[in-house]
Amino acid sequence: MRQCAAVTVTIALRHIKKRFGSQVALDDVSLELGRGERVALVGENGAGKSSLMNVLYGLYGADAGEVAIDGKKVRLRTPADALAHGIGMVHQHFTLVGPLTVAENVVLGREPTKAGLLDLPRAKAEVAATCARFGFVLDVNARVDTLSVGSQQKVEIVKALHRGVSTLILDEPTAVLTPQEADELFAVTRRLSDEGLTVVLISHKLREVLSFATRIAVLRRGKKVAEVTPEESTQASLAALMVGEREAPAAPPASTPGDVVVALAHGACGKLKDVSLEVRAGEVLGIAGVDGNGQRELAAVLTGLSRLDGGTLHLLGSPQPSLTPRAARRLGVAHIPEDRLHHAVVTDFTVAENVALGRQHQAPFAKGPRIDFEGRLSRTTSLLEAHDVRPRAPSLRLGALSGGNQQKLVVARELDANPKLLVAVQPTRGLDLAAVDAVRSRLLDFRAQGGAVVLVSLDLEEVLALSDRVVVLYEGRVTGEFTRGEFDERLIGERMLGVRDA
Amino acid sequence: MRETARAALPSVASVITSLVVCFLAVAVLRGGLEVALDAFLAMTWGAFGDFPRFFDGGTSAAVLRPLGESATKAAILTLTGLSVAVAFRVGLFNIGAQGQLIVGALAAAVVGAGVELPTALHVALCLLAAAAGGALYALGPALLKRYRGVHEVISTIMLNWVALSLVENWLVTGPLRATTTGDNSIAGTAQIHASAELPRLLGDVSRLNAGILLAIAAAVALWLWLTRFVGGFQWRAVGANPEAARASGVNVGRAFISAMLVSGALAGLAGAVLILGTEQRYPATIGAPYGFDGIAMALIGNGHPLGVLASALLFGGLRAGGTRMQLFGVHKSFPELIQGLALLLVAARLMWMKVSDRLLKPKGGP
To answer: Domain residues for B196?
Structure first.
């Protein structure tokens, strides 16, 4: 397992170059990792953070450059090579097998056997021992798909530790976590690093980077532009290094709410137990809450993806007892779903085909029953331009676009339909700063033009920055409602955790 | 253009590899490259026309007769291939083309023998009956999928056996059996009227009939539907990402049902082409597993209607020509081996994707 060597063991990435087609992902990047260090990699989407770590983890072969461990050059051609050298990685998207238990997942690939058969009792004992040794509280018998996202992430980390890694790479680990889970993650990893584990953190969240890292490397467009310590940095100075100077988004001007667009009374659906709320034209209603308290179901009900089990829903004044996604779209409901790849786009379709999706039977995307190729192309071209989606290639496969550009395209498409109501779930998740600003200002523009927005986000800062009113959901019920001007972060936080007034 | 090449490369490379491997196998087993070359040439002439004999002073029949046999087989393979392919495109795996073909064939045979009409009308009615029969037979699995979540692979595969037993073990040998005249005992249903036969395109020289035109028309129509029409766009969206399609307002259940109806109708038409073009009655047994060959055609054709057509033209031809390989000690089912190997190689799509990425990498530029 882990050696507690006194000497400082280092990993050195030297002059790494990597290109994908015409895109230069990494341009002569060098980075050293010392034993027990907590190194953060920051940079905008596409700056090369993940690419660099994927090279170290053996997922990508570098076009040039070398990796040395303890001064000896090594070849890392597969993740198995990397693991053999004590390098583990936890990806943003987990690689767990849902129906298997925690213990089975952790030993997967190097199962203890007895007479050629899986020795499950021993596997459980070993995994439980690993959990205990590193201070993880996990039920090794629990099925992974019954666990919360935070616990699943712990399983990923335990899996790496169980293989005896001495270096752990975390790729945007907090993107899917609640604030409490994130705090716990950092507490645990900080302790592990004190015991000698080298941790590499890839993150967009500068606040957590500053509080967690011992050293920060800044990447910009495939180059390492700076290496700084948290003591000498601020969020502003890091942001400046990442992108150059940028103005902070202005606080939204006061809204002048119009007619009621959404009226939900005693809505119930799965985890949504009893929620009543109203949204008016020209306002942003923020939904705050810890993940899994009914937000997902609320968004599904408003967009017609799920039916209400109880309660009533009025959209634009008319009752909707059996709303379908199609009817919702016709009424003017646009949707930026949480899970883009599953619900918003078809990665095997072209960019233009994805722009048409949802309005495929309307002008300018169709003429009668036929596809209007010219109309589709010109609308797509103008949308790509107006929303700065790159590259400007309507006939490119959507899957070839970066995540940020895919998201910008979804936002562009949904707002292009001239909706009355926009249901936006985590619209800026995983985006870089420039893209976050772009998406947020689109939402505020839409509101200024009289649109109603329901904004569901796990990022409380985002909810508070954009909303005119905030509704707090806890266990499927409204536990608080706040209007801009009386936002109280501490109080909202308490309501999110179900803390009640005495 | 590069995208098209990228999509077609795995299929083309698989077929070529399969042909080469099978060629070498014949060479090894039959003692020499020359024998193998002769056998493959014989298959080629048998498939696409015996040009050596024609230029040696033979009649045009030397070319037209093999072409007719190939086209007849290719028409049926195209239709069953399209049947499987169209289901593929909405994300369904219709293994039931064989059963739908049997029902369509029976419908064509019954209407062909039981009704008297002028030629054009009679053929059209038979085709319609076959398409309706096949579609109805596919409707059950579609509804079960839509409303009860029954996996279509299970329901369609089981209904194959229901169709086979019902038609060949009971109807054709029982209630629908042709009445015997004198000493002549005929197996299968009564012969269809001449007015119901698919018109021969070249008279008596060759069995080439209008079935191939129907198959080509179906392939082109399906291609246009999938690429040019909003409805086809929605089907493709459902096939590529049903969740996103649903969120975009596409009625996924309706797409499943309508695509399965079209799939069944195409398999039914294949049955009609078999009966009206070749058999002229529902024989005691159809025997050949054209419906299952359709799966191979759909996969080798990469689910693309024109790819299916190309693949069916090739393998229809090779099968027709395969009989000529017997002269060289090679079993006539050898072309099925070529097809099977090609299918296996196509399944290794990832491998070909890597090859194509290397081959089609833009040169010079970054």
So the answer is: 2-176+189-359
